[in-house]
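Handout, section B. The chain below has 151 residues.
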Amino acid sequence: GAADVPAASVEEVGLGYISPALEGVREAELWKAMLLKTGAGIVDFLPVKDVRIEDMGTHIWRRMLFVGSGPTSGQVMTQHIYTDDASGEIRFVPVEGSDGDPGMGEEGREEIVNGLLRDPLRIEYYRRDRTSKERLHWSAPLARTSKERLH
């Protein structure tokens, strides 16, 4: 498996990851579990701490310190998180220049999408351009991303 691959050749998410079909779980239960990643519960999925959340009405504002390894280690990450029950999409949009103020900052051009796929029930993760909706290469480790759904 991916755990056996040397660190220098870690498999990346690339243009996306789709889980195998998820058996024995209802769609509503899966969506509720996916929504746990939009709040302070992100600490159960990613190596982060000092998580701050603000409900802005149309989206969630979140700021957190990434404490995992890699190029983002030690960086404060600020995001706007949008959830859409009908499409089954959760969009994580990086925000620049907020300086810790939920009302400030500018959204970046890219977003990470966590999607709920139906028939069969699956989860999809990918990175895309917010304007064109074109998928972009995502260098996040596939092993960590695919493991998130099992938590």
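Note. Confidence is low (pLDDT under 50) at residues 1-7. Compare this with the example in section A.
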